[in-house]
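Example 364.
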Amino acid sequence: MTTFRIEPSHNARPADEREVILANPGFGRHFTDHMVSVLFDRDQGWHDPAVVPYGPITLDPATNFIHYGQAIFEGMKAYKHADGHIRTFRPMKNAERFRSSARRLAMPEIPAELFIESLVQLAAIDGDWVPADPEKSLYLRPFMFSTEVGLGVKPADAYQYLLIASPAGAYFPRGVAPVSVWLTPDYVRAAVGGTGEAKCAGNYAASLIAQAEASLHGCDQVVWLDAKEHEWVEEMGGMNLFFVFGTGDSARLVTPPLSGSLLPGVTRDSILIMARQDLGIPVAEEPISVDQWKRGAQSGEISEVFACGTAAVITPVGEVKSAQGAWTVADGGAGPITMRLRNALLGVQNGQDPDKHAWMFELA
Ligand SMILES: Cc1ncc(COP(=O)(O)O)c(C=O)c1O
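Predicted structure in complex with pyridoxal-5'-phosphate:
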């Protein structure tokens, strides 16, 4: 096992200050007292693993990633369970996705064991930052960027991996209140062969203008359509999408297939497994067109639509606006299958339900 150098912070927040933050953490606003750093260069490979005080990093203005964007990240959550242990959800999936994002951006792949050990190290030193409230969590943000200095366009020779953490309340402040979505006709998130499958910084920069367009149309979120025909539904903002066809015992779940331009969500994968194996709901990965969505919602064949991802877990989609008109999914509220899946997933994550699939990984 890798030995990490530990440099404790001299400015760690006192317990009372921390508790005030944990009472109302918001999302991504506050950070714990430490961070983990691991360096890479072509000669030494991965080296200098360290737990250091959270704080600014100094960069040469010619640092490669600022210009050419070799930067990837992950997002996961740690929960404090009633037995006092800190656990996270399926971290090997994030470790694998981080490696695959790195491959796509011609960056070095951090070994999964080192990635996991970085989470363990941060939980060991900043474990008091994991809220005990089952509605809250500690959001973990591993990321990596190139650090080589120089303006040549090429894969850099040096990189830094960092892990920071931020206590999190609800991602969408209105909780499970359904979101309204705008199907953008003007922008695409990703094309097959591009970087849509990678969790790289540039994908998010490219998404912001479409999110602003969604706001202009009075919608909470943007929904991405395929790059070629602008017809097939792909994702919603930073979340994957599910459609419920039918109701009650005849309900079945459909999600767009991983066509090469979607981010393969860990939550998406978990919902497919849970629905099929635990809840007996048939699932399918099938393309869904805008027209099918509109007609299905209008006829009642599509009874629920929801988005899923680590940050907000499961969020119902109520209203849709598009170049082809506007429609509402059922009564625009949170449907029963959406809520069943949401409760089932949250129950495992916050430790209140049995972990049948051994998805929870003990960090501390
Ligand atoms: C574009 C995009 N799609 C989907 C997801 C959902 O992935 P996960 O369930 O692994 O959080 C995310 C968040 O990571 C995302 O950024």
